[in-house]
């Protein structure tokens, strides 16, 4: 079994080419959209969902059969057709500096895409390195329940609060104590219940040193 190195990569405005326009390609596009990648689909036909995204300009559709030059600008490549020969041609055309994922043959892939839970800046990924995709999906479902939608606002608040504390205190025990105090469980509960005033009041106390 391959021992994968987990990594979060910045794909903002970078080109990702997906060869194939069916159900699997649709799943890959859904996971790439939040990363703000420049997504290019190469396929003679397109799934209805992808058609809408192409019409709205969220992805680029090259309505054609695959050619090696379609990969010229790609950082990542996903071969997602149901034709083995096409996926093999994509793999052969990829340059050594380009990372490729073959959805039909994991053993020939440079990377795999894990099951992902996104809550704003919070990204939790799960992988069994291909041993059991069903288990990865189950764990993802458990995580989606544990980390509910409130975490989106909660993590954004923590992000802003951290910047404010860093601006207020120099590096040292006082800053560390204030940052640790941000993990007070009540902050998440206040967020869940819409008690934003209480959350903000707590942050102001932290900035004044009143809760340390």
Describe the structure.
This protein is of the alpha/beta class. It has 3 domains: 15-113, Rossmann fold, CATH 3.40.50; 114-147, Double Stranded RNA Binding Domain (2-Layer Sandwich), CATH 3.30.160; 150-208. Helix content is 43%, strand content 15%. It has helices at 23-32, 48-55, 84-93, 133-146, 150-168, 173-181, 185-192, 196-208, and strands at residues 15-19, 38-42, 60-62, 76-79, 99-102, 115-119, 122-126. The strands form 2 sheets. It has a 5-stranded parallel beta sheet, sandwiched between helices. The protein has a two-stranded antiparallel ribbon with strand order 6-7. β4, α3 (84-93) and β5 form a beta-alpha-beta unit.
Fourth CATH level, the homologous superfamily of the largest domain: NAD(P)-binding Rossmann-like Domain
Structural class computed from helices and strand pairing: alpha/beta
Poorly predicted segments: none
Largest beta sheet: strand ordering:
3-2-1-4-5
Q: Report Rg.
A: 22 Å
How much helical structure, as a percent, in the residues? 40-55%
What is the CATH architecture assignment of the largest domain?
3-Layer(aba) Sandwich
